[in-house]
Amino acid sequence: MTDHEKIKNTFLDILYPRRCPVCHCIPEKRGQKICGGCKERLKPVAGPRCYKCSKPLRDPGQEYCQNCRSRSHLFEQGIGIFPYSTLLQESLYRLKYGKRQEYGTFYGELAAFYARKQIEKWQIQRIVPIPLHRKRMEKRGYNQAELIADALGKQTGLPVEKKLLQRRINTKPQKDLDPLQRRLNLKDAFIAKFDLQGENILLTDDIYTTGATIDEAAGALKRAGAGRIYFLVVAIGGDG
């Protein structure tokens, strides 16, 4: 970073102070990305996880969560960095609807820190963010999954492909639907534009609950010739 850029950033920090992505307060020290108290509270998933989707498991003797035991998925494996709690719920809401685009960069960088070895193990060739429909993109102005993917790609050196996967149906919001309704809501919602010739793809999104969105996107990528499909999300729900 040049001296001019440092001066510019300092000036912008004074005019528009950086806010902690977790509590939305201004950190004690200028330039901090997260305040000290929230740094202690923001802990990655620990303990036993589902082998397939990485949901936290209550029983350490289990290999799969209830969802992955009851249905098959089109992805190989996935990883969620943090448990989806009230703490993350408020933060990710601000990311999606509160114009806090810098939160996406913050979480993408953290994802690279915690998941780098797993991503290397999967031999990923491209990162593909879950796309928004054109109408929703125009209304919101940005796609939070793309922000996460950009930061992740920058940290890992992997290419981010934003035009490969398109959302051709403006589906209803998933949060108020049950698992079956979620799958039906997303049926044929995505289309992949390129011939992928067996490439391994990493899908990125903010939250994983039932896996309906990831499955539908993975199906579109496989129809376009992709090899193994994996996913990474910032927050993942619990088992059951």
Please tell me about this protein's structure.
The chain has 240 residues and is an alpha/beta fold. Helix content is 41%, strand content 14%. Helix 4 (86-97) packs across helix 5 (101-122) and helix 5 (101-122) packs across helix 7. It starts with a helix and ends with a strand. The relative contact order is 0.16. Mean pLDDT is 87; it is low at 7-15.
Per-chain topology:
Blueprint: H1 3-15, H2 36-41, H3 66-70, E1 77-83, H4 86-97, H5 101-122, E2 126-129, H6 134-140, H7 144-156, E3 165-167, H8 179-186, E4 190-192, E5 201-208, H9 212-223, E6 229-236
Parallel strand pairs: 1-6, 2-5, 5-6
Antiparallel strand pairs: 3-4
* Strand line-up in the sheet with most strands: 1-6-5-2
Number of strands: 6
Q: Which band does the percent of strand residues land in?
A: 5-15%
Measured between the Cα atoms of the first and last residue, the distance is 47 Å
Q: What structural class do helix, strand and pairing data support? A: alpha/beta
**SSE order, as H and E?**
HHHEHHEHHEHEEHE
- Spatial shape: globular
Number of helical runs? 9
